[in-house]
Design brief:
globular, four-stranded parallel β-sheet, Aldehyde Dehydrogenase, Chain A, domain 1, Aldehyde Dehydrogenase, Chain A, domain 2, homodimer
Chain lengths: 431, 431
């Protein structure tokens, strides 16, 4: 395809998605849920087609020598297809936030105002190798009345096409509006560029993938982008901590699932308890096969094998059995370190002194700040949100676990009986 | 200044603003209000310096031949300085949304969660000729605990410097943290580019000015941008309307203050009432010296002097005594026209049939949708928000009148007593 052909195909999809979003606004929660259940049925019914398509992607992956981790992300099997269908059913069961009245009030002139939750409109999702994102993302966006344009990685194109077809055709049997869910059917890289330029039709772009993908989208996009950057998560163990609790929170935060964004990456230890705490925590972590990279004080007290931490370690999301450790002079230095080196994702203080803990909660500039609990709870499911589309490291619109409510916008509905504006007041929108 | 010098100056201001934002997080509402009152006092006390600085800008404006409208926007006098100080006092009186608990709940494992309102962090404001924006924007951002970097137009640079100095030095007497409010002291155009690149330090950019400025910022910015685009506002008069009410709402929406973004620009008339309504509304508008540009049906029934409307009229924000008028085949066509040609700002239906009105309220995709009231009420003051920084035409984070709450972010504070994550659940942040 030429660049012009790609552009024109993408913009045509945008126009169609905008039209679909108008129809989606009018669907009731029940209608949407029936459609979702039909989508889940279709995914199960088409297991064979989906697995055959996935086999094509897997064969290509072997041919180009994709890493085994990448191959594992790409692979579908009957269990994974069943989990995909089950995930859709669970979304159908969730409360529909669209139409909720967020606030309602009446002005002295008798005008009644409602601030009401609405769909956003059209959402673009750009993602990498995991084909299940096709279903997860499309279904969450549909539940909230949004049209979606999906752009998956080229490694998963056959799987993505088969899953999208199941959602579209399954949904259509129960009235899914045409073009509500569109997958870009080709894999040319330029499609990302044209999506980023299409602010006329896309209300928001959500890149789901590594820092490289997010960077690319941020630098090109004309519309809002919701970013899910790294989780460089910290645990700070204060002088007032219960040290048994501290050891267990550190170990759980690090090793319960090291490959995810809410896993611990840097441990900060109050120097006042360094002598007692460091040997204990170092032993516990070493037992779990965690490689330790520490500052001088940590290394001198650890009593186990450690490596020196470099400046770059404080900025690294290992996603592995590696932990950097630094001693700090109390909660103030801990806060400064976290705000400087962290990724504003998730951080924990272990402390029994409430003044210290409240200071940490107030001053650490992160989406999720914990007192005496594992960082691993920073998660939409654990928060009780049901499904999540990711954990936002942005501060606007969505911060932290991003569930159905964060896939919504709002508008003001204003009810009058002929009110006219009588006094002169100048809104600042006209400079 | 060389481009490198400008870049380095802007990034230095960014670093300082980030440091200031850390301190701002710790101020109480009372401390902030005392600082605001000291700022208001300083603006009044420095009236002479501010007017002298403004005289320099006015002299330059005459020299370069700025239009009289532009000169009027630029001009300060004792009344305008007093109004600026009064505006600051009114912001001090507003409720401080920072620290509000938006939601609080406990999970089955005993973890307690709070979703709490916080400052955003560092806000960049790029504005054009009106120097009072320096005070208005800085003060709203400060009230909500945000640091600001202001970049005003070069025509107002002397006035802006004098006002910023009053805010900074007045605030400092009551403990305004250093660098909380910074004005870029030079006017090189490249400063806009470097602000747009500085996502490391700026959490959001708010351009306050015409479509050209917003376009420039949108195309360059790496951080979220909150846009206040045009208001192409509609009134649709349905067959079920009370026609007296309809005439008065149309006239008020158009002429009560035509130069602002919530003024009416296009009138849509249900064909079923065209014969009775059009002559009446045309006469009333003509009496108010409104130029009318209409479709065939309107022109044939108006009974007064009209011009033909072109396609481009449906996309034009006149901000003047001009109105385009189109006849439509009921509420469905009205909704389609508004969603296609409008700017998603503010639209009104005049109707007595509630099914028709509810459909309009649901399907019109605009920030403010009115039933039986003037479009001129789309305004933070009229909504009861106190001051507003503008009317957002975005759908993410802030939509419609943008007051103090929309200058805030939120974070999750999570209180545990040693909880560990035991079950395996995979957050989708790791693709």
């Amino acid at each position: 395809m030429t660049s012009d052909e790609i552009r024109s195909a993408i913009f045509h999809m945008g126009e169609q998605a905008r039209a679909a979003s108008r129809v989606l606004t009018t669907l009731s929660a029940n209608q949407k849920n029936e459609i979702l259940l039909a989508m889940a049925d279709a995914v199960l019914a088409r297991e064979k087609e989906i697995l055959e398509a996935n086999a094509l992607d897997m064969a290509a992956a072997v041919e180009v020598g994709l890493s085994s981790a990448m191959q594992d992300r790409l692979r579908l099997d009957p269990q994974r297809v069943a989990a995909m269908a089950q995930g859709i059913r669970e979304v159908a069961d969730l409360h529909d936030p669209v139409g909720e009245v967020l606030r309602e009030w009446t002005r002295p002139n008798g005008i009644r105002l409602q601030k009401k939750r609405t769909p956003i409109g059209v959402i673009g999702i750009i993602f990498e190798s995991r084909p299940n994102v096709t279903a997860d993302a499309a279904v969450l966006c549909f539940k909230t009345g949004n049209a979606t344009i999906l752009r998956g990685g080229k490694e998963a194109i056959h799987s993505n096409r088969a899953i999208a077809a199941a959602l579209q055709e399954g949904g259509a049997t129960k009235g899914l509006p045409e073009n509500s869910i569109q997958l870009i059917p080709f894999t040319d890289r330029e499609s990302v560029r044209y999506l980023c330029e299409m602010d006329k039709y896309l209300d928001v772009l959500i890149p789901r993938g590594g820092a490289g993908l997010i960077e690319t989208v941020v630098s090109m996009a004309r519309m809002p982008v919701i970013k899910h950057y790294d989780g460089i998560c910290h645990v700070y163990v204060d002088r007032s901590a219960d040290l048994d609790m501290a050891v267990s929170i550190v170990v759980n935060s690090k090793v319960q699932k090291p490959s995810v964004c809410n896993a611990l990456e840097t441990l900060l230890v109050d120097r006042q308890i360094a002598e007692t705490f460091i040997p204990r925590v170092a032993e516990a972590l070493t037992e779990k096969n965690v490689e330790l990279r520490g500052d001088e004080i940590f290394r001198s007290l650890a009593g186990v094998d450690t490596k020196p931490a470099e400046e770059s370690d404080w900025r690294t999301e290992y996603l592995d059995y590696i932990l950097s450790v630094k001693s700090v002079d109390g909660v103030g230095e801990a806060i400064d370190h976290i705000n400087h080196y962290g990724s504003h994702h998730t951080d924990t203080i272990v402390a029994s002194d409430s003044t210290t803990a409240e200071r940490f909660l107030l001053e650490v500039d992160s989406a999720c700040v914990f007192w005496n609990a594992s960082t691993r709870f920073a998660d939409g499911g654990e928060f009780g949100f049901g499904a999540e589309i990711g954990i936002s490291t942005d501060k606007l619109h969505a911060r932290g676990p991003m569930g159905l409510e964060e896939l919504c916008s709002y508008k003001y509905l204003i009810y009058g009986d002929g009110q006219l504006r009588g006094v002169s007041y100048e809104p600042p929108c006209t400079p």
